[in-house]
Design a protein that fits this description.
Layout lengths: L1 E14 L3 E8 L4 E6 L16 E7 L8 E8 L2 H4 L3 H14 L9 H11 L5 H18 L18 E4 L6 E3 H4 L7 E2 L14 H23 L5 H29 L1
Antiparallel strand pairs: 1-2, 1-4, 2-3, 4-5, 6-7, 6-8
Helix pairs in contact: 2-4, 2-7, 3-4, 4-6
Length: about 260
């Protein structure tokens, strides 16, 4: 058995004295694991760092075997990502979400989304929005996608402000007014075609929204806890926004003086 594909490194673990088990998200073979002989060598270790894009050759005697990878670097992203806590935790969070999917199931759309996101994870403002959207993509791939296109009660596509915790469907501000305290907030930037950017409050609403449905449909039924990386990512985002607010406050004070 043999195939060649492109992949993004999600992680590695030691195997024996010199080898490593490589976990990658591939373009056409889904999330896949394989042995890299000599994967802990000085030559291979930099290539096998999370976030790097690699060219892969996989061989095994039988399809169900772990198999052996040969990996060559296409794009070395790891060093750049390690400079930012938001980027490191963001990548770890996305890797944890991808592990919720069956191994070796192809998800080409998720691979493309992951590739785009890695190129922007170094920008904390963009990273928050991108990871929030990625979580909705994962829910959709798991069969628990949210319908944010129109109001569940009236069919309108205007002024959508809530998501029903029961149905996972959007609700307009007017239709949901009477039950607003029981609804989940729908941040405007998540609506298709809005063109809006997210501020700190909108991101908090977005992750509260996706986290609710992850807990209900994925974590609790599987007896899992939310990944620690997700909490680390949200904490890193909050520190970034607090720092930006402090800088803006100092600038404002200087202008007043």
């Amino acid at each position: 058995m043999e195939w060649r594909d492109e992949g993004i490194v999600l992680g590695t673990r030691r195997h024996g004295e010199t080898s490593a088990i490589l976990e990658v998200m591939t373009r056409t073979h889904g999330r896949h694991l394989g042995l890299v002989r000599g994967g802990r060598s000085r030559k291979q270790q930099p290539v096998l760092q999370p976030g790097n894009r690699v060219d892969l050759l996989w061989r095994a005697r039988l399809d169900e075997h772990l198999g052996v990878f040969q990996a060559e670097a296409i794009e070395m992203n790891a060093a750049r990502l390690m400079d930012s806590a938001v980027a490191v935790y963001g990548l770890q969070t996305m890797a944890a979400h991808l592990r919720l999917l069956p191994e070796r199931d192809a998800h080409g759309g998720l691979y493309e989304a992951l590739a785009v996101m890695i190129s922007h994870l170094g920008d904390p403002d963009a990273a928050g929005e991108l990871v929030a959207r990625f979580e909705l993509l994962i829910l959709d791939e798991l069969g628990f996608g949210l319908d944010l296109s129109q109001c569940a009660a009236t069919g309108t596509r205007q002024d959508l402000a809530y998501v029903s915790p029961k149905s996972g469907r959007a609700v307009s501000r007017e239709a949901g007014a009477a039950w607003h305290d029981k609804m989940l907030a729908l941040p405007a930037f998540l609506q298709r075609g809005s063109g809006l950017r997210a501020d700190a409050a909108a991101l908090e609403d977005a992750f509260r929204l996706s986290g609710f449905f992850f807990t209900r449909h994925v974590y609790e039924p599987r007896g899992l806890e939310p990944p620690d990386a997700r909490a680390g990512f949200l904490a890193a985002l909050r520190r970034h926004h607090a720092a930006m607010k402090a800088v803006a406050g100092e600038a404002g004070s200087g202008a007043d003086a």
